[in-house]
């Protein structure tokens, strides 16, 4: 089969590799789409953090080259022994975290903090940028009838966003601020809407603001127009927003968030910054806000799938699809240049 | 009466001023003790933040000179009209926050975030470094029999510490880290103990470590001995502490806290840093810990008083008393030089 093999920064090759075979409690999936994520770009253009370049991965023993792609969805084509409650033909979204099951975090159920965590599509034997992949049965979430393969491939990034919203504890009637209207920012907005809350979207790109507005943002703000926090205080009559979610990954957003949030409100970071972010503690004292991060997801796939079924995840204006052969030129480069919001790769 | 009047940085004068008279819903208190706080030192040695030096206070209209002292306790000597459920002779602790009652924070009950907050002892007509003071009845918390004037004067700083512990949500059986064994750090330890939790105290001063150990610390660590976070991970078998409370106000403590805390643990800052504190966001993602601040108190006086009644606030080894006349030389200078932990001033 054809697969995009990651050898290291700047070196991704679409090659012919052996088709994987499902073992016990595993399923083989024909990939319909695999989304390209910012973290894929980070591996390719930056310093790899997810792929085992220098040494074998401590949990899986895998080292580059690896098949890239952790936002994968497709159809079950073969069911291994003892893989229950799943059938050939099922449309599935793959939850890519592979955890050790024995560290203190895993023991407490917090598998997204596993000390030796691997990721399907970064550090296991398979990934989504391939015609086929094999995963453990429990990593394959079966989608209900009516959902499409496009939606299935979005479950993973939407789960990242959903988890961030869960960490805000926002709910019915709350007004929250989303910094950034990329795929995660939009996903945060959809999750808020699914939970009965609404979003003030802060985004410098006029085109992305227009998409956010069309897809349901209560307010859209251009940070170039002036003091975002002052605008948010105006909108909320000086009460402040329930929560702020930073899906922009810009260090200055933290202070804007702390100036926008209500007493004991929540500021949740979804984007990791490699540089120290200056925390102005007087702003933290002003409201006793909490600042936290949202790390991937933990048990969020079913809620996202159910919210998709209810119609909370429209695809208009932010999704494009490409083939596998020119994934770097048509995919990575387009995203890096800001010419696309979310790109799904069809490997077949 | 004699009172310590603050005119501005470096200018505190013990002067003769008129004795205050209680109006409706007010009480007059003969001060037994008033503690000196780090924020008093900050006003005197640094750039005033609490005292209205340049312009009248927006809520009270008061401008310097003001009577300093916001950790006051004493005996009721006169009860104004309509001041209910209080009698001459009652021992009281003064809760010094004066809030506007009408801003969004006050409207939500969060009076410690009042947009125009004043403080008795910084920005009202009275303070605790005086023979007498007058406050609203509701600011005077009556202490039960058996508690001493020394303890009464400690209710305010102990409420600061208690509020910080409340913000950790720690309880029975939890092991938490306290950075700093000054008065607030010790207060945090006492509050943890009162709530059934226990404390790992991190403190560079050998003498303060000895006091903390004697007063109940489960562990004491010297940050000079090496990697504090590694020691805490050892103590907790890699699980991490439930919460970390920074009562040291050193910027590096934030990273130590994030490396010491469990998954979804809490890091609470009690000390304001005027400089930006570098937040290493990868550490925040590692555990999805929350970072927050604890601002003064809100409704914490009764719980502190009750915990004092139960015996959770021993005074051995960290309290000294002085007279009013040489409050700068015997009080401020001694604290600044680290020659005392907590100093209570007796104005009469």
Structural class by secondary-structure content of chain A: alpha/beta
Total helices of chain A: the number is 10
Q: N- to C-terminal separation of chain A?
A: 9 Å
* Succession of helices and strands of chain A: EEEHEEEEHEEEHEHEHEHEHEEHEHEHE
Give the amount of beta strand of chain A, in percent: 25-35%
Low-confidence stretches of chain A: none
Oligomer type = homodimer
Hey, which two chains have the biggest interface? A-B, 38 and 38 residues
Largest sheet of chain A: 7 strands, mixed
Shape of chain A: globular
What would your notes on this structure say?
2 copies of one chain form a homodimer. With 348 residues, chain A is an alpha/beta fold. Chain A is 27% helix and 27% strand. Chain A contains 10 helices and 19 strands. The first copy, chain A, has helices spanning 38-45, 104-107, 149-168, 183-194, 206-214, 228-235, 253-260, 281-287, 301-309, 327-336, and strands at residues 2-8, 11-16, 26-35, 66-67, 72-79, 91-94, 97-98, 118-119, 132-136, 140-142, 175-179, 198-202, 219-221, 241-246, 261-269, 277-279, 290-293, 319-323, 342-346. In chain A, the strands form 4 sheets. In chain A, strands 3, 5, 6, 9, 10, 18 and 19 form a 7-stranded mixed β-sheet that branches. In chain A, helix 4 (183-194) links the parallel strand 11 (175-179) and strand 12. In chain A, helix 3 crosses helix 4. Chain A is globular, with a radius of gyration of 20 Å. The mean pLDDT of chain A is 97. Strand 17 (290-293) of chain A pairs antiparallel with strand 17 (290-293) of chain B, so a sheet runs across the interface.
């Amino acid at each position: 089969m054809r697969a995009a093999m990651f050898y290291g920064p700047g070196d991704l090759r679409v090659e012919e590799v052996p088709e994987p075979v499902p073992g016990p409690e595993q399923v083989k999936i024909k990939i319909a789409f695999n989304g390209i994520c910012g973290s894929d770009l980070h591996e390719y253009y930056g310093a790899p953090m997810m792929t085992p370049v220098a040494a074998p991965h401590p949990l899986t023993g895998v080292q580059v080259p690896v098949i890239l792609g952790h936002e994968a969805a497709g159809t079950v084509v073969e069911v291994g022994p003892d893989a229950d409650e799943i059938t050939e033909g099922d449309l599935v979204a793959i939850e890519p975290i592979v955890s050790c099951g024995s560290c203190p975090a895993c023991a407490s159920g917090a598998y997204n903090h596993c000390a030796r965590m691997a990721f399907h599509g970064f550090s296991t034997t398979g990934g989504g940028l391939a015609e086929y992949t094999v995963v453990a049965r429990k990593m394959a979430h079966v989608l209900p009838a009516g959902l499409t393969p496009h939606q299935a491939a979005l479950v993973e990034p939407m789960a990242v966003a959903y988890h961030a919203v869960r960490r805000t504890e926002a709910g019915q009637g709350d007004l929250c601020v989303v910094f950034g209207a990329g795929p995660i920012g939009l996903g945060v907005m959809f999750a808020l809407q699914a939970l009965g809350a609404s979003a003030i979207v802060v985004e410098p790109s006029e085109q992305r603001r227009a998409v956010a507005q069309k897809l349901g943002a209560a307010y859209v703000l251009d940070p170039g127009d002036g003091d975002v926090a002052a605008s948010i205080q105006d909108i909320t009559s000086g009460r402040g927003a329930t929560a702020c979610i930073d899906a922009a990954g810009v260090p200055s957003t933290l202070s804007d968030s702390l100036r926008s949030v209500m007493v004991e409100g929540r500021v949740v970071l979804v984007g990791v910054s490699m540089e120290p972010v200056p925390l102005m503690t007087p702003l933290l004292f002003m409201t006793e806000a909490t600042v936290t991060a949202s790390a991937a997801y933990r048990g969020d796939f079913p809620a996202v799938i159910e919210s998709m079924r209810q119609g909370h995840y429209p695809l208009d204006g932010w999704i494009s699809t490409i083939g596998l052969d020119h994934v770097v030129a048509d995919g990575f480069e387009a995203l890096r240049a800001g010419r696309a919001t979310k790109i799904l790769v069809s490997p077949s």
